[in-house]
Write a structure and sequence with these properties.
By secondary structure, the chain is mostly helical. It is built from 3 helices and 2 strands; from the N terminus they run αβαβα. It has a two-stranded antiparallel sheet.
Length: 102
Amino acid sequence: MFKTYGENGGGKKRYYLHSEEEAEEHNLRLGTGLKPGEFTPWEDIPPGTDMMFYEGLHGMVVHDKVNMAQYVDLGVGVVPIVNLEWIQKIQRDNKERVTRPR
């Protein structure tokens, strides 16, 4: 998508539904019954746009088989001070697991 958009301003997009609220918003817009954890169907990017804003993981990935950064004019990355995976694990554990008294 990055390459195609850079070449002709077109391409396809879709959204990952993180929550019930996001699912409800897109279900109303699309007339679908999607749930959190699912992707919306692919849709054409509307013609006449002149900037793509990508928000998500791995947008600037570069390794031996993939180089997304070559298609981007400006990339901004945010790295948390504390390991984000640990933060998410702690939140999940506190929410979903029963703590035992000591």
